[in-house]
Amino acid sequence: MKRAVVICWGVLLLCLGVAVGAEEAPAHPAATAAEGAGAVSAIQIRNLGAGKIDEGFVRTRIASKQGAPLDRQAVSKDVKTLLETGRFSSVDASVDVSNGAIVLVFSVRGKLRLQDPVAMEGVTHFRESKIRDMLDLLVGDLVDDQVMGVRVQKVLEEYRADYYLDAQASWQIEQKDAATGLAAVTLKIDEGTRAVVKGVRFVGNEHFSDSTLRRVVKQPSHWNPMWLLRKKRYPADDLETARLDILDLYANDGYLDAVVEIPVLEKIGAKGLRIVVSIQEGKPYKIGTIALSGVTLFKEENLRKEIKIEAGDVASAKVIDATAQAVRDYYGGRGYVNTTVRPVKETVAATGIANLTFSVTEGALAHIRNVVIQGNTRTRDKVIRRELLVYPGDIYNEVKIRRSERIVYNLGFFDSVRSAPVDTSVADERDLVFQVEEKPTGNIMMGAGFSSVDNLMVFLDLMQANFDIAAWPPTGGGQKLRLHTQVSSKRKDYELSFTEPWFLDRKLSLGFDVYRRESSYSDYDVTRTGGSVGLGKSLPGANRLDFRYRLERSELGDISDSNEYFYVDSPHDPYYFNNEPRKLTESSLTVSLTHDDRDNPFIPSRGNRTSAFATLTGGPLGFDTDMYDLGLTAIQYVPLWFHHVFSVRTRWEVVDGYGSTDELPIDDRLFIGGGRTIRGYHYRDVGPKVERTVSDATGTTTYHKPVGGQTLGMASAEYLVPVVSKIRLAGFYDIGNVWRDPYQVDLGSLASSAGVGVRFDIPMFPIRIDYAWPIQKDNELTREDEWVFWIGYDF
How many whole angstroms separate alpha carbon 460 and alpha carbon 445? Predict the structure, then answer.
C-alpha cells in the first residue's frame, strides 16, 4: 500500500512539472504573428475550381488589407461578403506564417456557368418551357447545387399546388470546360400520380349538417349529379377561404365562440384526397342587454333608433356589424369624420347571452373644401363630378360619399373608385379626394352563335361606353356609341345608336338610333327601316321617365300563300295573307315609366324591375297607321340560401287601332311562344291561328298558321341554382296566351309548360339552354318545340 501511494505522488509531481514547463516556455514568433501581433504581409487569392477568377473583384470586396494588422473577425466578415456576392460556391480563409511573414490566403471556388438551357427528363404535366420559366436560369447564369436547390423547390411547389403531392426532383451538374467554367445541367423529375379531392369530411359539427357545410365549400354530395363538376383542386388560399366562410356561417347564426381549424388534406388510396375540417361549435348566443358608450354629441335615444336589434334576438355577427355601421352612418351622415363604432360582445357561456356595448369614438365635424379627382387620364373631370352627390362647402357626409363612389363605379369606366379625406390648414375642413383607376371602355366583339329562333348566326358589335363626339381621340366624354350587326338565316339586324347621358349638362339622357331589321317567317318577310330619338330623366327612388319618337318604314314581302284561310276560333271569318298592306310608314311616340332597383342589370340576384309604357302611332303624328299600344312588364328577384335565386316575371300588353285603321297589320300584332316567352312551343305559335282544309283523292289535310292577336298576358317563374363559377341550373314554369281582340282574356285557354335549363354566364356572351315539357296547350294546333337555345341577357 505504501509503495502504491509513493508511485501516485511521483506521477502527480511529474504532471505538474510538465504543465509548469509548458507555461514558462517562450512563444514561437510565427505563432505570435498569427494571433494578430503582426501585420499582413500579403493577400493571396487561390482558385480551387474551374474557370478564371477575377482577383480584382475579390480584393475590392474584402476589408482586409496588406500592411494592416491581422483581424480574424474582419476576415470572417470578408468570407461572408464574398459568399453573398453569389459568384462563389465556397470561400475559405487561412493564414500562412513563414519566417515572420503573415500571408492571408482566400481560397475560392467559383460557380459554373450554364452552357445550354437546362435539359429535362420526366416532365409531362407542365411544358418544359414553363419549368424553365420557374427555374429562371438562362444560358450564362451562375449555377451550383445551392442555386439548383432553391430553384427546384419552386418547381416542386408548383407541382404540389397542382396536386402532384409525391413529386420529386434531382439534378446533375456536369462540368464541360474547365478553362471557361461552363457546365450542363440536367433536371430529372418524378412527377408521381396526380391526386384529386374526392370528398370533404367535417368533424365536430352538430348545428349545421354536412350537406350545408359542403355547399359552403362548394362540394356537392355524391348523390348530386353535379358531383361530376365538383371542384377537384383546392389551393391553400381556397382552403383558407372555405375555413373563413364556415366560420362566418356559424358566427352569423349566433355561434360567436365557434372555432374552425385550418382544413387539412388526407390521402385516400393512391390518387385520392379528402379535405378534413375540424369544428368546435361552442354554444349559440342570444342578445342580452344593448348599451351605448362614448356618446356626447347627440341624444342617446336618437342613436338607439338606428339599432334595429332587440334583446332575445340571435346574436348574429353579421347583424351586429350592420348595426354598428348604422350607428357610424348616423355620425358620418352629419359630417363627423373618422367616427368609429366598435361592438363589444360580453358573452356568458353558461346562459348563452351576449351583452352588447357599442363603443363610440366620436369624430370631428368637417366640411368639404375642395373635391379633387385623381387617376383619370382619359375621362374628363366633369364626367365624374356631375355624378357626385356632394359639393364643396357641404358637410363631409360619408353616407353620400359612399353612394357617390358606387355611382361613379357603376358608370363602367373604372376598375376601382376610392375616396378619402385629406387634412387642410383649416381644422374643420377637408379636401375630398376621389382616386379612380381607369379601365378600357371600348369593346369589339365578333363571333358566331346559335339560337332556336335564328339558327346559326354571326354577329359584330363595336362599342365605346366612354365616347366623346366632340374630341379626338373620341373618348372620355361619358357618351355611349354602339354599332351592332347580326346576320342569320332568318334575320339580319343593323343598328347604330348614340346616347348622351347629360344633355345640356343636365341629368337628361338624349339618344338616337338608326336601324334596319329584316325578319324571315314561314309565310312572309318583314323589313323595318327607321330611326328614333329619345329623351329620358332619372326620378327619385330608382325610377326613370322616358319619351321616344320613332319613324319607321315597314315592308311586307315574299308572301308565299294567297289561299283563303279561316280563323280557328271563328270559322266564318276569312283571312288572306296577301291582303296585308305591303308598305307602311309609321310615326309613333312612346312614354315609359321604369322602376329598377336590381343589384345587377345582367345577372341580378335581388330587386325589381317594372316598366309601364304607352305608345301612340299615327293620328296627330301622321302617316299610314293609327294605333296605340299599352303594356306593363315586371320581374322580381328574391335571393334565397346559398346564392339560390327565385324570380317571377309577368307581362301584359294590348294593341288596338283607331281612326282610319280598322284591322292591325300582321307585323304590328302580338305573338307569343318559344324563345323567352312560353317555352316548349314553336316560336310565335301560341295564340290566334287561321286554317284551311284541302281535300283530294288521298284524303283531307288541314293547314294552320299563327296570325297574332291584340291582347297578351303571360307569367313565368324560375328557380336558379349556382353550380360552379359562371354556370347555373334552372327550373321554370311558363304560362300565358295571346287573344285575338283587344282587352280579351280567356283564362281557360292558357298555354303552360315547365322545364329545366342551364345558364352559362360568359361575360358579353351568355348562353341559355332550356328543355321544356308542354303541360297545357291553348289549342290542339299549337306545335311543340322542347328545346330553346338563346344568347343574351335578360333585361
Answer: 6
How far apart CA 650 and CA 609 sit, in angstroms, is 11
Count of Cβ atoms closer than 10 Å to residue 356 Cβ: 21
* pLDDT for 26: 41
Instruction: Say whether both 718 and 779 belong to one domain.
Output: yes
Residue 493 maps to a domain: no
Q: Per-residue DSSP letters for 216-248?
A: HTT---TTSGGGGGS-----HHHHHHHHHHHHH
- The single residue listed with the C-alpha cell 338607439 is 304
CA–CA separation, 606 and 599 (whole Å): 6
Cell triple for 704: 294552320
- The C-alpha cell at 534 is 329619345
Least Cα distance to 70 among 98, 103, 100, 22 occurs for: 103
**Looking at the structure, do residues 94 and 126 belong to the same domain, yes or no?**
no
**pLDDT range class, residue 29, cuts 50, 70, 90:** very low
SS3 of residue 745 by DSSP: coil
Please state the three-class secondary structure of 398-419 as a single string: HHHHHHHHHHHHCCCCEEEEEE
For residue 513, what are the β-bridge partners?
497, 532
| CA nearest neighbour of 745 among 661, 654, 659 | 654
* Domain presence at residue 475: no
- Summarised one tens digit per residue, pLDDT across range 684-703 is 999 999 988 887 777 777 78
Phi, psi of 659 (to 5 degrees): 65, -120
Percent of the chain whose pLDDT exceeds 90 = 57
CA atoms of 15 and 244, how far apart (whole Å): 74
The domain that holds 761 is classified in CATH as 2.40.160.50
Where residue 349 sits, what CATH number does that domain have?
A: 3.10.20.310
Can you tell me the mean pLDDT for 66-79? Answer: 90
- Same structural domain, 663 and 734: yes
Q: Which residues of 300-316 are buried (b: 16+ CB within 10 A; e: fewer)?
A: eeebeeeeebeeeeebb
Q: Count CB atoms within 10 A of the CB of residue 530.
A: 18
Domain-ending residue, one of 348, 364, 380 = 364
Is the CB of residue 576 less than 8 Å from the CB of residue 549?
A: no
C-beta separation of 282 from 347 below 8 A = no
Residue 7: which residues within 8 A CB-CB, separation 6 or more? Answer: none
- Pairing mode of beta strands 286-293, 101-110: unpaired
Question: Which of 420, 438, 456 corresponds to the end of one domain?
Answer: 438
Degrees, nearest 5: CA angle 39-42-45: 135
Q: Dihedral sign for Cα 625, 579, 743, 647, please.
A: negative
Per the structure, the complete domain to which residue 95 belongs is given by 29-110
- Nearest by Cα to 138 from 172, 82, 189, 185: 185
Per DSSP, 36 falls in state I
Identify which has the larger pLDDT, 269 or 604.
604
